[in-house]
Structures are given as structure tokens and as C-alpha cells.
Amino acid sequence: MNAAIWAEVLKARRSRLQWTTGIAFTIAACFGGLVMFILQDVGRARALGLLGTKAALTGGTADWPGYFALLSQTVAVGGTLLFGLVVVWVFGREFSQDTAKDLLALPTPRAAIVAAKFEVTAVWCLLLSLYTYGLGLAIGAAIGLPGWSLPVAAGGLVKLVLTTVMTIALVTPFALGASAGRGYLAGVAAMFAATFLAQVVALLGYGRFFPWSVPALFAGTAGSEGELPGPVGYALVVLVAVLGTAGTTMWWNRADHDR
């Protein structure tokens, strides 16, 4: 297991994807800071050319709780795509680069290889979220957001981490798609399908029963008085994680790896 984790960490460290995902979350945190800056003084934003003369920006409060909520919502919505991209790359690269048979020929159990890939993926995604939180602290302090307190900061961190954990759990089926599809295409297709359906189902009012809509609802995309996921929604998230992990492990153990 240690050797498998070491190999996956080495692949991730030498990949350009870590820089791509890092830049994406940097842009997300900076955009959130820009929204807070505009909300602080809409007139100033118009004078600086950040907002059109006829444009209106509503639905948010320029303070630390609002900024932390916006970061969590960004991770919930964008995390499905970015975390999904990480999972698809980690599992699909073995087939796209024709290294799957070489990997399976090593004296390491296939279940250990799959577990190592999931562990490295989970840590990778969690570090991205923590990086976003840290960058958010710096941006919020730089623009002088009001409402700072340690309980508010701790609550924002807890909500962000919980949102991240649920999002990571929901991208595990994409690993099965990338594995069974023997490349990136099937995993990417599953990722976009889940993201699209999450938006549609939430719009129809049944998001609490669709697992891929649960993190966004938990993060507050529906507003303070909007729909929140209940026990059924959280249970479905756990179920998807179990099925995605077990299905991927079973496929790697039993599939006919002919190339």
C-alpha cells in the first residue's frame, strides 16, 4: 500500500494538472473577492468600471460570513467538475498512456492500487479546498470585509470542509467510468452528465433527493430560506460513494485487462 501511494503521489507531483486545478481555484477565490468588493460599494464599482451602469448585483452581503458561504458554494458547484477532472485523470491516464498492464503486473494487489488512487485524489481535492480557504482569508483581509470573528472563521472552514468531503464522495463513480471506458472520455461524459442533471433537478425542486445536488444545497446556493438537504440526501451521498468505490475496485479486480 505504501508503495502504491508513493507511486500515485509521484505521478500527481509531476503532472501539470495540479497547476491547472490550483489556478482554477485561485481564480474562483479571486472572483469571490471581486464580488464582495463590488457589494461593498456598488457606486464605487461602477466608477471603477467593474459594473455596468445599468447592471445590478443583488443576493449577497459584503461580509465574512457571506464570503465564506460564497467559497463553499464555489467548491460545491465547481468542485464536481474540477474534482471530477482529477479523478478521471488519475484513473484514466493508465489506459490513455498504455501503462495499465504494466501497473497490474507489479506484485501489488489491485485493490491496493485502487485504494491508493482514491486516497491521493481525496487528499489532493481537500488540499485545493484548504488552499482556497487560505487565499480567501488573505483576500477578505485585503479588501477589509467586516464581521470577522474566530467562530465565524471556524464555521466557514467546517462548512467548506464538509462540502468538499461530500463533493469528493460524489466523484467516485467517475473513476469507474474512466476505468470501464479505458480512458478519459467516459469519465468526462459522466462528470458533465451529473453536473447538468444536478442543476436541472435542483431547479425543479427535487435537489434534496438527487445526490449531486446535495453539496450545493448544503452550501446555501438556494439562499438562507431555500431548500436544504435532509437525511435522505446525505444518505444518498454516502450510498454513491460506497457504490462508486466498490464498483471501481470490483472492476479493476475482475475486468479483462487486454491492453
TrEMBL record:
The chain crosses the membrane at residues 21-39, 67-91, 120-145, 157-176, 183-206, 232-252. Keywords: Membrane, Transmembrane, Transmembrane helix. It comes from the Bacteria. It holds the Pfam family ABC2_membrane_4. This is ABC transporter permease. PANTHER family: INTEGRAL MEMBRANE PROTEIN-RELATED (PTHR37305), MEMBRANE PROTEIN (PTHR37305:SF1).
